[in-house]
Design goal:
The complex is a heterodimer. Chain A is α/β, with parallel strands linked by helices. Helix content of chain A is 35%, strand content 35%. Chain A is globular and about 30 Å long. Chain B has a five-stranded antiparallel β-sheet with strand order 1-2-3-5-4, covered by helices on one side. The relative contact order of chain B is 0.20. The chains are: A alpha/beta, B alpha+beta. The interface between A and B is medium-sized, with 25 and 29 residues.
Amino acid sequence: MAVDIRSKTDNGTTVIEVAGTVDLYSAPDLRSSLLDAVPKASDGVVVDLREVSYMDSSGVAVLVEGLRSARSNDTRLVLREPSRPVMKVLELAKLDELFDIEAA
Amino acid sequence: MTHDLQLELRTDPRLLASVRALVGEWLAGFGLDEDVEHSVVLAIDEACSNCIRHAYGGSGDCYARLTMRATPEHLEFEISDEGTPCRTDKTERRPLEIPHPDEVKPGGLGIQLMHRVFDEVRFEPGDTRGNRITLKLRRQR
């Protein structure tokens, strides 16, 4: 299993826990979970990225799409504790400041 | 002793994890900083992903070739395919700014990451058809 995605909703906030690698192969799994969750979560979506061992631009593109969807649904998207590989690709893409990031 | 390595890669996204592992292992012999090593693996992954998505339109049944070569000055990577030629207006380095999310075009992000990681990035047509991407990293950093 390249990526493991678990979602749980509590008081209107959906937390999506992502573990493993997010690349061209596995990004569609994250995309469907995220885009499914955003319109339903009245109090926003938290994407927990602590256990992500690798992410490339396919994963970043999914996060950007999630953020767009959150804005158009008038809700929020938070990235929780992105792991080092996630921060690295966000920084390289200069997208780290675009996101609401919850640090450790 | 030569460290050159050439691989035929089936363009199946499931195999990208193996490509990354192999590139990482090949790089380990050159004493690069861990962050640089990670970035190089990422940028090669981007080049291969790009080839699968664009040159072959996502088809997993084609082949691309990855060559890794160490010269005294550079670590050089070449990814060649026989697919649809890249649009040259998509392969130029462009400035990355803090964008508005509506303006982010993730499609070209992989190419911009390659430009950020490598000292030289060249896109050109293949010998008979397709594309050849050459990526060079200076060994003295």
